[in-house]
Design a protein that fits this description.
By secondary structure, the protein is an all-alpha fold. The protein has 2 domains: 4-94, Rna Polymerase Sigma Factor, Chain: A, CATH 1.10.1740; 103-196, Arc Repressor Mutant, subunit A, CATH 1.10.10. Helices cover 69% and strands 0% of the residues. The protein has helices at residues 12-19, 23-43, 48-65, 75-94, 103-110, 124-131, 134-142, 146-157, 162-169, 173-196. α2 runs antiparallel to α3, α4 (75-94) crosses α9 and α5 packs across α10 (173-196). It is elongated. It starts with 11 loop residues before the first helix and ends with a helix.
C-alpha cells in the first residue's frame, strides 16, 4: 500500500482514481483528513457525537458528488467546503442555527442619536487582561452563530485568504467583510460583558 506521505492528492492519476471511486484513493483521504474534520467540527461548537457524525456525512457526500470536483482547487478545500455546508445544514436540522444577527442593535445601544457614548467601552487594559483568559475567549467563540464562527475561525485562526474563505462558505467578498465585522463586534461585546463581571 502506498504511504500517504508519498501521495500527491493533486495529481491527475489520483483524481482519476477518486472519480472512478477506487477504494484505496478514498481510504487515503479518509486516513489523512478524518481527524482534521473531526477537530474542526469540535471547533465549530459541535459535541463529540455530532462531530463524528458530521465527519461521516462529509465522506458520504464526497463519495456521492466526487464527479463534480474539477481539480481547480486542492481536494482539501473541496472536502472542507463540504464540511462547512453540511455543518450549516446540520445546525438548521437541529434548530440551533441562530437567525438574524443583532450586532446593529448592540452598536446602536452604545450611542445616542447624536453619536455620543451612552455605553462606553471598558478600560482597554482591563479588557486585554480579561481577553487573555482562554476560557473567556473560548466561551465567547462558542456563543457566535455558526456562520460567524466559521468565517472568523477561517480568517483569524486558520489565517486563510479571503478568496478561499469565500469559496468555502459560498460568500461574496462584501458579505465576508460584514460577517467578519459582526463576528468581531459580537466577540468584543461578549468579552467585555464577561470581563466586567470579573
Amino acid at each position: 500500500m502506498q504511504n500517504k506521505s508519498n501521495l500527491n492528492f493533486s495529481s491527475t492519476e489520483f483524481l482519476t482514481q477518486l472519480r472512478d471511486k477506487e477504494h484505496n484513493a478514498f481510504n487515503s483521504l479518509v486516513n489523512t483528513y478524518s481527524e482534521q474534520l473531526y477537530r474542526t467540527s469540535l471547533g465549530l461548537g459541535f459535541n463529540r457525537n455530532d462531530s463524528r457524525e458530521l465527519t461521516q456525512i462529509v465522506w458520504t457526500t464526497l463519495y456521492e458528488i466526487i464527479s463534480e470536483f474539477k481539480g481547480k482547487s486542492h481536494i482539501r478545500t473541496f472536502i472542507f467546503g463540504i464540511l462547512y455546508n453540511k455543518a450549516s445544514e446540520f445546525r438548521r436540522e437541529q434548530k440551533k442555527f441562530l437567525g438574524p444577527d443583532v450586532v446593529d442593535d448592540i452598536m446602536n445601544e452604545r450611542f445616542d442619536h447624536k453619536g455620543n457614548w451612552v455605553k462606553p467601552p471598558i478600560d482597554p487594559e482591563k479588557f486585554l487582561l480579561g481577553a487573555e483568559s482562554n476560557q473567556i475567549i473560548e466561551k465567547c467563540l462558542e456563543s457566535l452563530p455558526l456562520k460567524l464562527k466559521m468565517a472568523f475561525a477561517l480568517k483569524e485562526i486558520e489565517e486563510k485568504k479571503n478568496s478561499e474563505i469565500c469559496e468555502l462558505l459560498n460568500l461574496s467578498y462584501s458579505n465576508l467583510g460584514v460577517i467578519i465585522y459582526r463576528a468581531k463586534n459580537r466577540l468584543r461585546e461578549c468579552i467585555e460583558g464577561k470581563v466586567k463581571k470579573m
